[in-house]
Design a protein that fits this description.
homodimer, 353 residues, alpha/beta, 434 Repressor (Amino-terminal Domain), Rossmann fold, 6-stranded mixed beta sheet, 12 helices, DNA-binding
DNA sequence: ATGAAAGCGCTAACAC
DNA sequence: GTGTTAGCGCTTTCAT
C-alpha cells in the first residue's frame, strides 16, 4: 500500500509543473539500474566507460540534477556554511555597515572557490549563541560569525560545546573560540601615532570599548600616547556605538561639550564620517582644527569629504582566512586565533605630515 | 548485515565529537516511539498533552534539534531561497556596490521574517542562467537575482523553463520573468528635471544603457530634456560600467575630452562620486561648474563630498517585495512585474534651486 | 493515544 | 560491470 507524503495534486498535468527528474527516471531511460546511474554520475571506475558516457549524456540532455538533500542525508555530508551577521535588536538595525558587507562578499568568494554554499543570516547581537542553530539543525557544517560584539562569553560557550565556529574579531585573553581579524592593537597604534606625528596632542578616541575589537584598538591608541609621553584622558573617550543613528546624537553632544581636542581616532569609517559632520556642525574644520582617522578603509573611504585617512583592514584576504580556519577545525586541526596585519592609508582627513 | 555509509571512525570517543542527537534517542529516553516524538515535536493534537509536554521538555533539555535534510526529504519541502548577485567575470569584481549589498540585507530580513533561509551566491554576469542550478538541485525553492545585467534573454529563458524567479530590475517590453524594481523612468526624469530647474542646459548621462535599468533611466532623462525643449546629445552620453575601476578611467577621459556640459545624471552613487572626482581632476567644481545627481541613495550618500543629490531607491521595501513576489509565484499566482516609486533626495551635489 | 512500517532520493556494501 | 538491497532521519498512514 503506497504511503503518500503530502498528496501532490495529480491533476496539474496542465500546469506544466513537471515532477523533478530523478535517478530512477534516468535509469529507466538508459535501461540500467539506479546504482549504475549513481555510479556513472559520480564518475566511478566501476562502471563501463561506454555506459558511463551514455548515462552522463542522457542526464545532461534531460537537464537532470541531483537532489542534494537526499545525497547529503545518505552521505552524512554537507557543504554549507552559515555566515551570521549580528544586528542590534533594539534599533532593528540592518546589516548595513559597509565593512561587514564587504567581509560577507569576501567570504562568499572564498566559499564558492572551495565548493561550499553559504547560508546568510542575521542574529540578535545579544544572543550570538543562537547562531549555533545552523549547525545543530544540520543545515550547516559550521558557523562564521561576523564580529564578537559584547558577548565574548557566549562565544566561548559555543566553542566549548564543540560548535565549529570562527569569529571575525580580535584575539582576547583566555579565548576558547577561533578568531580571525586584523591586528587591532596595531591599528589603534598606527592611527594615534600618525596623529601625534602631525603634532596633535589632545587625541580623542571614538568607539565602544565593550566590543573586543574596539578594546584592543584602544590599547594600541593608549600605547601610542604613552610612547609620546602623554596620558590617556578619559574625558576624550567616547563610547559611540557603530549604529549611525545613535552615534550621530552621541557625537554631536560630545563635540559641543568637548572642545579641547585636535585629533580623533575613530573605530570605523562611518564613525569617522559622523565625527567629521559633528565637528563641522560646531564650526570646527577637518583636518585643520581636528585631524580624524577612520578604521576599515571601506571602498568609499577615498571618496568621502574629506577622503579618509584610515586603517586598512585586509578584507580580500579575510574571507579565505576565515573559511580556511573553519575547514581546518572540521579536519580536526586545533585552529588558534589568527591576527592579520593592517596598515594606515593616508588621505586628507589626517594628511601626511 | 549492517551497511555503513562512509564508515565513521568509531575510535573517536575521546575526541568528544558526539554523534548528533536524533529522534530515536529522544524516543528511547522518553520511553515512547519515534512517531510519538515526531508528533509531539510538531505539536500534533493526536498525542496526549502530558506526553507531548514531556517529550518537548526532554528534547529541549537535551538541546535536540531536528535534521532538516531528512525532514525536507520526507516532506518534499524546503524553506530556502537562493539569492544570487551577478559579478563581472572579466574584472573578477567583488560583490561591492553598496546598493546591491543593501538589497541583500533587505532580502535577508524579509526571508527571515517569513521563516525562510537564504543561500547567497554569486554568478558570472554573462551566465545568469547558471543561477537556476540552485533550484534544479533542490537546494532552493526559487531564485532572487539582483540585477538583470545585459542578459535579458537568459532571464526570459529561465522563466520559460518555469524556474521560480524574481529579478531586481526594470520592467522591459515582452518580459517573461517577474521583475521588481524602482521606477527607473521616473528616476531618470526626476534627476534630469531637477538639473534643468537649476538652469543647467547641457546635461550628460553616465551609465551603460545596455543594462535594462540604465536604459529605462535614460528614457526618463530623455523625456525630461524633451519636456524642456532640448535634444539629447549623444556626445554627452557615457556608457560607464558600474565597476569603479573601469569607470574611473572612462570618466577621466570623458571629462577631459568633453567640457561642454553643466550637469550630469549618474546611474549610481558610486558613479556620481567618481564623476565628481574626475571633474575636479580637470579643474571643474561641483556643483558650481557642474551639478551632479547620483542614483540609489546609498546609506553613505549623505556623507560624501559633496553630499549627493540622488534618486532614492526603496531598499527597505525591496526585500519584502521581492520575497512576496517569489512566494506568490510558488503559490501559483501569476506575479507580474512590479515597479516601486522613487523620489529625489536633495543634497549639495545638485542643491535646491 | 500510540506504534509499526513504508518511503522521500540517493549511495555503497554485497552479491552475481 | 551491474543489479539488489539496506538505510541516512524523518513524517504519516494504517492498524491497534
Amino acid at each position: 500500500m503506497p504511503l503518500m507524503p503530502k498528496s501532490k495534486d495529480p491533476s496539474d498535468s496542465s500546469a506544466g509543473e513537471q515532477r523533478r527528474l530523478q535517478m530512477v527516471d534516468i535509469a529507466r531511460l538508459a535501461g540500467v539500474s539506479v546504482s549504475t546511474v549513481s555510479r556513472a554520475l559520480n564518475g566511478s571506475e566501476l562502471v563501463n566507460a561506454e555506459t558511463r558516457q551514455r548515462v552522463a549524456e542522457l542526464a545532461r540532455s534531460l537537464n537532470y540534477s541531483i537532489n542534494f538533500g537526499a545525497r547529503n542525508l545518505r552521505l552524512q555530508e554537507n557543504k554549507t556554511v552559515a555566515v551570521v551577521v549580528p544586528y542590534d535588536a533594539k534599533s532593528r538595525q540592518h546589516i548595513s555597515d559597509p565593512f561587514f558587507l564587504s567581509i560577507v562578499g569576501s567570504i562568499a568568494d572564498a566559499l564558492t572557490d572551495r565548493g561550499y554554499d553559504m547560508l546568510l543570516s542575521r542574529v540578535d547581537a545579544e544572543r550570538l549563541d543562537l547562531a549555533s542553530h545552523w549547525f545543530d539543525s544540520g543545515k550547516a557544517i559550521g558557523v562564521v560569525l561576523i564580529g564578537q560584539w559584547r558577548h565574548h562569553d557566549q562565544l566561548n560557550d559555543m566553542a566549548a560545546r564543540k560548535l565549529p565556529l570562527v569569529v571575525w574579531g580580535g584575539e582576547m585573553p583566555q579565548q576558547l573560540y577561533c578568531s580571525v581579524g586584523g591586528d587591532n592593537v596595531l591599528g589603534g597604534t598606527l592611527a594615534a601615532r600618525h596623529l601625534l606625528q602631525l603634532g596633535r596632542r589632545r587625541i580623542a578616541f571614538v568607539g565602544d570599548a565593550n566590543l573586543p575589537e574596539v578594546w584592543l584598538r584602544r590599547q594600541g591608541y593608549a600605547q601610542a600616547l604613552r610612547e609620546a609621553g602623554l596620558d590617556v584622558d578619559p574625558a576624550l573617550e567616547l563610547a559611540a556605538p557603530f549604529e549611525p543613528g545613535v552615534a550621530t546624537e552621541v557625537l554631536r553632544e560630545f563635540c559641543s561639550a568637548q572642545r579641547g581636542f585636535d585629533g580623533v581616532v575613530c573605530c570605523s569609517d562611518v564613525l569617522a564620517l559622523l565625527t567629521i559632520q559633528a565637528l563641522r556642525a560646531v564650526g570646527r574644520s577637518v583636518p585643520g582644527d581636528v585631524a580624524v582617522t577612520g578604521y576599515d578603509d571601506m571602498p568609499l573611504a577615498a571618496y568621502c569629504d574629506p577622503p579618509l585617512t584610515t586603517v586598512h583592514q585586509p578584507v580580500a584576504e579575510a574571507g579565505a582566512e576565515l573559511v580556511e580556519a573553519l575547514l581546518g577545525q572540521l579536519r580536526g586541526e586545533r585552529a588558534g586565533p589568527r591576527t592579520m596585519p593592517v596598515y594606515l592609508t593616508l588621505r586628507e582627513s589626517a594628511p601626511k605630515a
